[in-house]
Amino acid sequence: MSINIREIKSFFYSQYFSDGIRICIGILLPSLLLMQFDKFDLGLTLSLGALCICVIDTPGPVSHKRNAMAAGNLCLFLVAVITGFARLNVFTLGFEITFFAFLFSMFTVYGNRAASVGTCSLLIMIFMMDKALAAPEVLGYSATILAGGVWYMIFSLLFFGIRPYRAAQQALGENVTDIARFLRIKADFYLSDTDIDENYRKLVSKQIQVSQHQDAVRELLFKSRIMARESTAPSRILVLTFVDLVDIYEQIMATHYDYNHIREKFKDTGVLTEIARIIHNMADELDDIAYIVLSNTRRRHLTDFTIELEKLKVKIDSIGKNNQETSNLVLKKILVNLRSLSEGINNIYKYYSSKAAESLNDPKGDVEYTAFVSHQDFAPHIFFDNFTLASGAFKHALRVALVCLVGFITAKLVSLGHHSYWVLLTIIVILKPGFSLSKQRNYQRLIGTIGGGVIGIAILTFIPNATAQFIFLIIFMMGAYSFQRLNYVVSVIFMTPYVLILFKFLGVGLLNVAQERILDTIIGSTIALVASYLIFPTWEFEQIQETLRDVIVANINYLVTIAESISGKITSITTYKLARKEVYVKSANLSAMFERMTSEPKSKQRKIKEVHKFVVLNHILSSYIATIASAQSKKEIPVAHPEAMKLIKKSITVLNDTGQKLQAPNIEFNIGKIPPVNPEVQKPVAQAEDALLKEQLGFINKISYDIAKITDNILTD
After folding, report:
1. pLDDT, tens digit, 9 for 90 and up, residues 231-260
2. Cα–Cα distances in Å, from 139 out to 80, 104, 119, 133, 197?
3. Phi and psi (nearest 5°) for 537?
4. Beta-carbon neighbour count of residue 164 at 10 Å?
5. Whole-angstrom Cα distance, residue 707 to residue 717?
6. Which of 34, 247, 481, 575 could form a disulfide with 39 if both were Cys (CB 3.0 to 4.6 A apart)?
């Protein structure tokens, strides 16, 4: 029960709830203030502008928000003016809807932030298409909408200016929670009753969330002026926590072995159950750290793992003594990784102890953190280079344009009431570049609208008190915007009664509005789903070659970086961490692609089993490389034998050959001659470490060949 309470508290500290409050206040405040002066209609128009601009107010550096919202306000005014005049003739309105739907959908080529500017522009077009305005009124009304958008931009920027570190804290805390869940999934591999294949599915799914949150934290920490240029105590704590957190994630990735083998080998010792228990306890500690970061509090370190790990060491040592035929070297490596995890957790706790911040050193050191964030190019040629059916963005834009035209005609012919724009609004919200995303959003929209409609009707029917209804309006509004990125179904369930209660206050009939909204949602959903299947459909398998190529190239670079370090070459920390980051990001992209494939129609799921096997093999490969990288960073690996380096070169050659089949460039790897090591001089510990290194490299070599075979199967028609 306490865990559930902690999760609830964490939600109220999270960026999701913070976003909900900020958006709710930014939209409602103009209407509530002007209502006191009998200017409610003016307040509603201002709120409409704020409603459109809030779409752009997604997590990220404040400078990016400011620039995007400024561009959004410009588009907001221009589109409002054009739509205000275009709607005077049904044919010009139909042409405008088609053209703007294509134009603003193409903004996806410039990334998610630009895409949100396009969505904002389409929203005001949809809201304006049924607004009965005479020609002389259009400019004044559009200027009022612009004022509402500018108000929201200023309000949002002031909101972040008051607490400049809060957004980074929230994103970081949520990333810690994701890694804790990832760690629990890894722990389950050591339990004999866990299905390994199913656990891999859970693991790669969770890896997507970890990667997305890590990218969000990088953006906030290393693209924000206050983080990048100022060395204050809060910024040092946040950066140090994130750096250690990424290292902890690598340690978790490094705790990967042949689980079937170690289960069979140590099933009667009970040691694997003990390892799983300790890992679960470490995940609990990470959850506690997440709460500390989110709530900005200081708490006591709950568990000292020193005693636990000493007991585990005794047990591992006894296994080696009692059974000479069973090598316990793998268990010792697991113990080393667990100690590293414990050390990382202890370090983060120290950052949040009282008076710790003053003694912290500048976290930058030898690492250039700005290299870890992507930089969006807004060159005009990118837009026009995508004018080809080979571009997914171009096909998506064409699909949106055609479907919006069909939706507009349908709304004019069969709409029940005066809110025909709901059909187009549903299409814009549901229609995504890929079929699987459109299908998922379609299902969520329908369920949420019907469920929310029932709730809204029940409240308005059985709770006639206007004050109580207004309180529900505020609650539903905050819920809708708090869950819009966290859980879309819940967001729509909140949004539908919020809209119904709002229309009731505006004097529109309850049952008519509910019936109209549900019917228009069904019409829009049906059109969007059929269109995503029939009109320029984009199936995940069509992009699979590029995704596989990226992940193989990332793993080769990662392996080359580690191999150079093992061979004695000096490798910068930045180079190593960039290679590691690329592997995690590209692997998460691969996992996300596979998840989308499973949501597509069976007839379009080509080579689904082979792709799943590739996803698992890629995870195993990157985990084995991370295992070696972790040991190398602690100087546990001596300069490798020539035999070990031959294994590395062989693996790189195999992966290069596979990459070339996917049109990837060949990545060179050359090292000098390594003198042979005299085994009589080498220390026994070093001999054991070298033996384990060669064993791990043997696994990497085997996995590389397996990846080559499965890639051939995927590419074969």
Report:
1. 677 778 888 888 889 888 888 887 777 788
2. 8, 22, 22, 10, 61
3. -65, 150
4. 17
5. 17
6. 34
As a whole number of Å, the CA-based R_g of the chain is: 28
Alpha helix (H) residue ranges in 255-328? 259-266, 271-295, 305-322
DSSP label at residue 358: G
* Alpha helices, H only, 352-387: 380-385
Gap between the Cα atoms of 441 and 588, Å rounded: 21
* Element housing 698 (H / E): helix 684-715
Within its chain, how far is the Cα of 108 from the centroid?
A: 17
Q: Where does residue 650 fall: left (phi above 0), alpha (psi -120 to 50 degrees), or beta otherwise?
A: alpha
> In the 8-state DSSP scheme, what is residue 637?
S
Residue-wise DSSP of 58-92: -SS-HHHHHHHHHHHHHHHHHHHHHHHHHTTSHHH
Task: Decide if 536 contacts 433 (C-beta within 8 A).
Answer: no
Alpha carbons within 13 A on the beta-carbon side of 554: 25
Residue 398 token pair: 């064409």
Sign of CA dihedral 176, 177, 181, 187: positive
Name the one residue in this structure whose structure tokens are 């005479």.
Answer: 134
Distances (CA, A) of 463 to 185, 480, 512: 45, 21, 18
Task: Specify the amino acid at residue 568.
Answer: G
Which letter does DSSP use for residue 639 in this model? S
Half-sphere exposure (CA, 13 Å, Cβ side) for 650? 15
Range among 77-86, 370-379, 525-534, 610-619 rated most confident = 77-86
| CA dihedral (198, 199, 204, 208) positive or negative | positive
Angle at 689 between CA 191 and CA 642, to 5 degrees: 125
If you search the block for the tokens 């012919």, which residue do you land on?
Answer: 413
- pLDDT 10s digits, 333-381: 888 888 888 888 888 888 887 555 555 555 545 556 566 666 777 888 8
Bin 298: left if φ > 0, else alpha if -120 < ψ < 50, else beta: beta
Three-state DSSP class for residue 647: helix
Give the pLDDT mean for 524-535: 86
User: DSSP 3-state assignment of 338?
Assistant: helix
Closest CA to 317 of 308, 328, 325: 328
Whole-angstrom Cα distance, residue 492 to residue 497? 9
- The DSSP 8-state label assigned to residue 191 in this structure reads S
Write the DSSP assignment of 123-147 as a string of letters: HHHHHHTT----GGGHHHHHHHHHH
Rounded distance between C-alpha atoms, residue 578 and residue 591, angstroms: 20
Distances (CA, A) of 697 to 563, 621, 649: 10, 10, 10
pLDDT at 685: 45
Neighbours of 394 (CB within 10 A): 20
Contact 351, 363 (CB under 8 A): no
Distance from C-alpha of 300 to C-alpha of 353, rounded to nearest angstrom: 8
Amino acid (one-letter) located at 140: G
Contact 412, 455 (CB under 8 A): no
